[in-house]
Q: What sequence folds into this?
């Protein structure tokens, strides 16, 4: 089906449906329905330039599930998903609900600035009966004080206890002028010992076709979320002095605690190197 043939979801007031948005494009790559014609058109163009971009998104999504399960297994019961995007299959609160031991309580706070993502997140939480332990905060990740001090955040997150802070495939939409190093310093400083920081990010370290890379980057410059790829070393500093878990350095999402019987398809093998990820823990 052509991108322009699909029906757009219900739209909040004042949403710009004509300018592509990265959260909605990502939803499109994951097979979701919370996107508009402009998002699908950009996604199709990006897939033409970089044919395994959908597989890259799916590998990243599968990594998120393993990160949440690993945190639950370690006893973490608070999750702050910054840049959570449009809700689709395998949301953090769904993973938590499925993996939480009987009788235990966990809390989840999603954060996104995009109106469609926020509206549909609220609908998902309300329909799933999760509003007493999960919430969505409409805010930009570049405003950590507003996020960390938001009433819904403070209602569900006790910052004296460990938190799993998730920044999944979002920081490559933060430009150098926004000082991501300082932003991450602020977030890390507010978290208690035993907290975790999970980051995945697009990379320029691997042998990606340069022409395809330039095309995809140029496409996102025409969206509401211009993108920046970074090297492994540039991403590594965002973890500060926190200890990386399970691996001594950043790895690709498909390689982070993979399922024992996991076998990648040919397209997934091609897509595998185009993101770095890691999870780090604050020392007690």
A:
């Amino acid at each position: 089906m052509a991108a322009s043939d699909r029906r757009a979801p219900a739209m909040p007031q004042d949403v710009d449906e004509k300018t592509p948005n990265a959260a909605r494009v990502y939803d499109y790559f994951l097979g979701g329905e919370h996107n508009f014609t402009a998002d699908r058109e950009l996604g199709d163009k990006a897939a033409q330039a970089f044919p395994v971009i959908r597989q890259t998104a799916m590998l990243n999504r599968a990594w998120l599930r393993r990160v949440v399960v690993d945190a639950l297994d370690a006893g973490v019961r608070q999750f702050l998903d910054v840049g959570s995007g449009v809700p689709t299959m395998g949301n953090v609160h769904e993973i938590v609900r499925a993996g939480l031991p009987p009788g235990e309580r966990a809390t989840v706070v999603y954060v996104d600035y995009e109106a469609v993502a926020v509206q549909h997140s609220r609908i998902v939480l309300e329909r799933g009966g999760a509003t007493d332990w999960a919430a969505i905060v409409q805010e930009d990740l570049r405003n950590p004080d507003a996020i960390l001090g938001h009433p819904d955040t403070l209602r569900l997150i006790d910052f004296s206890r460990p938190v799993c802070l998730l920044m999944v495939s979002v920081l490559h939409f933060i430009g150098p002028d926004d000082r991501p190093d300082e932003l991450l310093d602020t977030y890390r400083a507010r978290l208690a010992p035993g907290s975790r920081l999970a980051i995945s990010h697009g990379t320029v370290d691997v042998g990606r076709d340069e022409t395809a890379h330039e095309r995809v980057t140029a496409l996102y410059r025409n969206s509401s979320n211009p993108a920046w790829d970074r090297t492994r070393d540039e991403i590594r500093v965002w973890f500060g002095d926190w200890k990386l878990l399970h691996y001594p350095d950043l790895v690709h999402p498909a390689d982070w605690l993979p399922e024992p019987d996991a076998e990648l398809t040919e397209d997934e093998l091609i897509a595998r190197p185009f993101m770095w990820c890691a999870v780090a823990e604050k020392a007690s």
